Each structure stands twice: as structure tokens, then as C-alpha cells.
Amino acid sequence: MTINVNIEETWLKSLSAIAQKVGENSFDLWFKPMKMVQFKDKNLIIEIPNRFYREWVDDNYPQLLSETIESLLGYKITVKFKISEKEDAAIKRIENKHENRRKELGKRGIYLNPKYIFENYVVGTSNQFAHAAAKRVAENPGGSYNPLFIYGGVGLGKTHLINAIGNFIVDKQSTTSVCYISAEQFTNEVISAMRHDRMADFKSKYRNTEVLLIDDIQFIAGKTATQEEFFHTFNALYEKQKQIVISSDRAPIEISDITDRLRSRFSMGLIADIQSPDIETKMAIIYKKALTEKMSISEDVAHFIASKIKSNIRDLEGCLIRLGAHASLTATTINLDLAKAVLKDLMLDDDKPVTVELIQKIVCEYFGIKIQDIKAKKRTKEIANARQIAMFLAKQYTEHSLSEIGRFFGGKDHATVIYACKQVEERMLQEENFRKNIENLRKRIVP
């Protein structure tokens, strides 16, 4: 075991920082069991109980460990996992195949997730249009639906689809240059290029790619320099008929603090939305994931998870991974009783009354903002929109008076609540995308 005192301290500080980022429950379940066993030549080896831990961290926080530790050390490191229990041979072969592909793509500067392909994307009524559009783009990049703008709530499969496009193109057209990047990373590269006077290199990298896949574009809202660079990058690629695929957690018209000319670019091609899946699609996703993980899941367990998880696919798969992790550690068979016991703190109680706090939580998760923001005096378009919607839904689904609802939002008066409700009602009549957002939220509050 090769660990020095400094790295021990760094590890403890990193865990503390991660706990603040992911929350107490996620930290206690997934990060706390990790043990640092070796740090040598900038390679950090972390021991985890079983493969489910690695899968959950890879899917939900792929760069969190390395970025947190690197920020404290001041240099790049490689994080590797060592699984304490014996791995299934077939699963290990698949994981090795994914890792080898990841390395091969990395050598070409392509950072796609090899697990996200069309073959393992479960299609239902909620996502079939977006899936069909993505498949068409992958088969004919630059010739169909350019740009393709995919939007939907958090954890509904946008990143899976956008990676699937990239993986399909790489497999079928190996010489085509593909660039997949998150909007956050794009922003960081803009800042770095400006700081180090390397804008020419930055422009060359992005304006000469043949397929640009950019995830979570809403992140550039309010970032003037990034929007300017993306606008020119978009134009350069579009004029050369190169494919652009963009994902967002909301429709172009709903993204606040971006320029009108950029919003119009997002709407030039095809816009495809992904809705929350119905219970049949959720069960199909559970079965597909269970098959991949070599887990035996009965119909009653699948139905229980699908009926209780209202939010998104990521939470659905997270429940299954958590169930698998527990069953693996305790060497027990997965049944309905075990599912109820292990997942009880993640499940919604159908008999539990709808509260203003629950509505605030659901609305904030849907729009990707903090609960304290809609309670504060912040008046940005994005926060004001979420606040008005939450007030409107609170009036619909709770028995609180208007004044009482206002108090839940930082002491707003009843007139503010009345105004918010009227604004939401008017927009529902005038804006189809806005009305869809309200319907999606209603399904999460009262399925």
C-alpha cells in the first residue's frame, strides 16, 4: 500500500467536498464505503464493495472524484477502481470491452460513453419521436434535421441519445470527426483559451469538426463570451453542412438569458422533446437494465419500482443498482420485501398528502434550480418562472390559502400568488411548450 500523509488528507478533504455536492444520503450510500488503497505515479486506486458502486458513480458523477481531488492537488490524476468482491466473468468482459473502446476513442480525442448506444435505449411513447430523429441523424449526419435539438427533464435519456448518435457515426463512418462535449466543458475551454491567448486553437478545434454533439446547452445561459463563441461555431459548421446536435433540459423558448439570435439558431432544424415515461416503458427499462446487470427481477418487483418512482429514468436505474448492491453485499435474493425495505426512503407514498414543500422540490428538480432560490428575492427570468409555476401548482394541489402559500415562498403576499397563477394560466393558453411543462409536473405530483 503506497499512500502518504498528504494524499490521505487530500482524500478526506475530497470526501468532505463530495458530501456537500451530492447530499448526505447519496454520499453515505455510494461514496462513504470507498477506501483509498494506493496512490502512485498520479494513479489513485480506490476499493469499492462491488461493481454496482462503480456503475452508479460512472453514470451519475463520472468526473466528480477525479475533478475534486485534482482541484486540491493542483494536477491531473487517474482514478481506478478495485472491486473487493469477485466479478461475474461475462460482465467483466463487457466492462473491459467498454474500457478499451473508451481508451481507443480517447486517443482520437473523442470522449463518448461507450455504454450509450441505440441497441440498449428503451423506446416508448414518451421518447419514440426523439429516438427516431436521433437515428435518422446518425444514419445521415448533416443531411437530415440540422440542427437536432433534443430537450426534456433531468434524467430522461437525452445524454444516452446524444452519445448513441456519436457512437453510431464512429462505428459506421470511422473517418468522420466527432466531438462530444458538455456545455459546461465548452464554457471552461472558452475561458481557458481567452486566458492563455489560444483562441485560434479553440476555433480550429470546434469549427473543423464534422459532427458536434453538445450536452446541456442551458448551461451557457447568462455567459456572454461563451454564447458568442458558440454562435460563431454554430454558423461555421452549419454553413459547411456539418451536423449539430444539442440537448437541453428545456425548449429553446424556455431558456432564459440567451441571445435571440442564438435561440433562433436552436430552432432552425428539428426540435424533439422527451416526456416522462409511462409505467410500461419504465418496466421495460428495469428489465433491460436487470438483464445487463445479470439481476433476476420478478414482475412484482419491477412493477413496484416503476409505480413508485415518478421522477426520471436515472432514478429508476439508480433504485435497481442500489437494490443490486444490497443483494450482492448481503447475499440475499431480490424479492418484493427486500425492495420495499432497501428502497423505502426513495419511494413516494401514495397516501401521503401533497405539500407545498413537495411541489417546490419537484419543480426545482425539473428546472434544475435550488429550492432556496425560489424562496429568495431573486427575480431572474428562470427563477421567477419556476416560482410562479410552483405557486400555481400549490394553489391547485394543496388546501393552503393564498397568504399561506406566499409564506412558503419567502413571505410573498397573497397578491403575488394571485398574479403568479394568472400568469401561468395565460401562458398555458398561449404557449404549447409551457403547457407541456405544466402537464409533466402534474404527472410527477399526482401520477
Explain this structure.
The chain has helices at about 5-20, 25-30, 50-60, 65-75, 90-105, 130-140, 160-170, 185-195, 200-205, 225-240, 260-265, 280-290, 300-310, 315-330, 335-340, 355-365, 370-375, 380-395, 400-410, 415-430, 430-445, and strands at about 35-40, 45-50, 80-85, 150, 180, 210-215, 245-250, 270-275. The protein is α/β, with parallel strands linked by helices and about 450 residues long. The protein has a 5-stranded parallel sheet with strand order 5-6-7-4-8, with helices on both faces. The protein has a 3-stranded mixed sheet with strand order 1-2-3. α10 links the parallel β6 and β7. α1 crosses α2 (about 25-30), α16 runs antiparallel to α18 and α19 (about 400-410) packs across α20 (about 415-430). The mean pLDDT is about 85.
Quick synopsis:
This protein is of the alpha/beta class. The protein has 21 helices and eight strands. 58% of the residues lie in helices and 10% in strands.
